[in-house]
């Protein structure tokens, strides 16, 4: 009954969902492309057996890279279908994999749309990254005998409490899974308590992503061009955090310091640039130049797929999503490059990784808002401490690799897809 009421609500919301696509398409035109795929209508022909991997947006798509590579090597006669929900995720997949995988949008969670999706692609198995599980998707896959696994799974304590409120929907969906590969023991425990089958701990796939040498060298070249200026990065910032970052910038003792600012969502690039300019800050954009003038205070990272380069170009990285209560963003990329990390108090989405990075000496947590400028200045003026933190970060990232191999072993044990 809960799933039927949920489906009825989805149908009532369909006009608003389609209008939202076109509204968001004002800033990101990709939302207006391939709209029929969101209703389960596809034009691409499929000739080989399909293994389907769902990565909702940019972060999940990047995390999927080592798993996609492993699946292609293990199943060369299969087509790897990579599905998304956002155009930025789809574009990231195109940049990472080119034509070596097939890409599409996963349809909205209507039973008829899911059935059309499964009928068209006939996937041998479906792999869902992190927590992207939908009630009708799980139900229809179970009815049609399509094995569905949740891999690289994570569930924060806060999300688990929210899911408890709708457990009549979530419990049957989780119970329909064929398997669970969780990032940590706590993630597995929380998912099992909500109804998932007994899972195994495989670790975090993001540790297995090797920093692309080309991007690291690009970032180092930028850093050399910046000269003797101190350079700090605000990475993957969310709405409302930029104003706090600008407050920090204005309070820094070193007025020569360069801030590289990379908002999390591309549709906010213009908004953030105007916000900085309204405060009288001198801004240049990555999309317009890589030659940063001495008077420039902010270099706006308004490009896609260059985060490793931004980390490599910086002496220090502040991880966005952690200053305000958004749960934090991925800090593993910064550690892998050897860039010291500063975190705010909100890291629920990466709680174990954040804790372990702090314990390893790769990251520091700033609890009070008024402490940020002081700590940023202290690190920017202490090269030896930054070097020690960077080396600790690289060692920390290397120590936690191996999730891809463990995930693949779990997939092979559960599924017959050869």
The percent of residues in helical segments reads: 40-55%
The total tally of domains equals: 2
Given helix and strand content, the structural type is alpha/beta
Let me know the largest β-sheet.
7 strands, parallel
By CATH reckoning, the class of the largest domain would read: Alpha Beta
Percentage of residues in strands: 15-25%
Taking all Cα atoms into account, the compactness measure Rg is: 22 Å
Low-confidence stretches: none
Principal-axis shape: globular
Number of helices: 17
CATH architecture of the largest domain: 3-Layer(aba) Sandwich
Work out the number of β strands.
Answer: 14
CATH topology of the largest domain: Rossmann fold
Q: Please list the strands of the largest sheet in the order they lie side by side.
A: 3-2-1-4-5-6-7
What is the CATH superfamily label of the largest domain? Glycogen Phosphorylase B
Q: What characteristics describe this protein?
A:
Rossmann fold; alpha/beta; 7-stranded parallel beta sheet
Describe this structure in words.
The chain is 46% helix and 15% strand. The protein has 17 helices and 14 strands. The protein has helices spanning 2-24, 58-74, 87-97, 111-121, 135-143, 157-165, 167-175, 185-193, 213-226, 241-251, 269-278, 307-312, 332-337, 351-360, 372-380, 383-399, 403-414; strands at 50-54, 79-84, 102-105, 123-129, 148-153, 179-182, 200-201, 231-237, 258-263, 283-285, 298-300, 316-319, 341-343, 363-365. The chain has 418 residues and is of the alpha/beta class. The chain folds into two domains: 23-201, Rossmann fold (3-Layer(aba) Sandwich), CATH 3.40.50; 213-399, Rossmann fold (3-Layer(aba) Sandwich). A seven-stranded parallel sheet has the order 3-2-1-4-5-6-7, sandwiched between helices.
């Amino acid at each position: 009954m809960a799933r039927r009421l949920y489906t009825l609500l989805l149908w009532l919301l369909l006009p608003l969902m389609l209008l939202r696509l076109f509204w968001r398409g004002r800033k990101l035109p990709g939302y207006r492309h391939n709209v029929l795929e969101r209703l389960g209508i596809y034009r691409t022909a499929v000739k080989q057996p399909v293994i389907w991997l769902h990565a909702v947006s940019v972060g999940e798509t990047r995390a999927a890279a080592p798993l996609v590579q492993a699946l292609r090597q293990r199943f060369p006669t299969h087509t790897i279908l990579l599905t998304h929900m956002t155009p930025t995720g789809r574009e990231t997949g195109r940049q990472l994999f080119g034509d070596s995988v097939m890409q599409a949008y996963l349809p909205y969670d209507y039973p008829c749309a899911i059935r059309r999706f499964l009928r068209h692609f006939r996937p041998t198995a479906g792999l869902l990254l992190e927590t992207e599980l939908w009630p009708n998707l799980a139900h229809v896959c179970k009815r049609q005998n399509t094995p569905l696994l949740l891999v690289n799974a994570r569930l924060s304590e806060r999300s688990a409490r929210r899911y408890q409120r709708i457990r009549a929907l979530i419990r049957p969906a989780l119970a329909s899974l064929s398997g669970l590969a969780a990032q940590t023991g706590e993630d597995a425990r929380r998912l099992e308590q909500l109804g998932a089958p007994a899972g195994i701990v495989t670790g975090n796939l993001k540790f297995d992503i090797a920093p692309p040498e080309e991007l690291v060298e690009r970032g180092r070249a930028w850093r050399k061009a910046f000269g003797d200026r101190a350079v700090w990065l605000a990475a993957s910032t969310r709405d409302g955090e930029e104003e706090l970052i600008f407050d920090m910038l204005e309070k820094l003792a070193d007025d020569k310091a360069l801030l590289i600012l990379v908002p999390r969502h591309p549709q906010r690039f213009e908004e953030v640039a105007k916000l900085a300019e309204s405060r009288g800050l001198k801004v240049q954009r990555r999309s317009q130049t890589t030659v940063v003038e001495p008077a420039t205070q902010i270099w706006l990272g308004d490009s896609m797929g260059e985060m490793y380069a931004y980390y490599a170009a910086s002496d220090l990285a502040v991880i966005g999503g952690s200053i305000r209560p958004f749960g934090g963003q991925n800090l593993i990329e910064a550690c892998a490059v050897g860039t010291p990390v500063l975190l705010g108090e909100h890291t629920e989405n990466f709680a174990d990784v954040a804790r372990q990075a702090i314990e390893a000496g790769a990251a520091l947590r700033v609890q009070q808002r008024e402490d940020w400028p002081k700590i940023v200045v202290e690190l920017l003026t202490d090269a030896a401490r930054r070097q020690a933190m960077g080396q600790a970060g690289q060692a920390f990232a290397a120590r936690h690799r191996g999730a891809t191999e463990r995930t693949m072993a779990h997939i092979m044990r559960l599924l017959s897809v050869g």
